[in-house]
Here is the input.
Amino acid sequence: MKSIFNFFLVLGVVIFMHSCGPARFVEPLRKHQNAIALDVGGPIIKVPDLAVTPIPFSSITYGRGVSNKLTLHGSWYTTAAIFGVAQVGAGATYGVWKSKRKKHGVSTMLGFNTAVDLFENNFKFWPQLDAHYYFKYNYKERNQEDLLTNGRKVANLFYAGIGTWYELASKKAHGERQETVVVPMLNIGHDLNWKRWTFKTEVKLIAPFSLNEDIVVDYFSLTGKNGATGLYLGLIHKF
Here is the structure.
């Protein structure tokens, strides 16, 4: 029981540290299209006497296509709310380039995350800038008959990219000097698509150039002693 208690105590501490989610709408939605996304996952940690497991952060995201190139979206972090942290995020994904046959594309995302500790009244704000390349396979341009067929499977999508969070505070939690201003993240993911539904999987390298020793959480990282590795699952419904 003590190990379980310590696990949830640590979980509350790291809400501020790495409560980011997977990439949002790597391929922009169509104009006037809406989507609701449910995501779960986070950095993989080693819990003493329990397991090596991703932190079960969860979030709900709503997105809407303003045009065929621009999607606006906002997120609410539900796990953070359980621990008394009101955290929301918002952003705009823009399709920078798409190949002639629409099988390849590049998009960018400009956004932010903000969090308020309701118990301590602490406030944090992180700007975010991402860029992704994606590739579609099993791709076939849909005709009118396809659009009228419910449940038809459409092209699946691989993507890879880089994201950056920016730490604006000059001091850390205990008054120490803030040395890390830019937190980079590298990710690779896959969207398994149907007409209305998408199942998302993503692996993310969080702060892969920063040492992860002598901190409150024992992270698992594919890069050894640097950063943390995150694992995320998501379900998206488009309408």
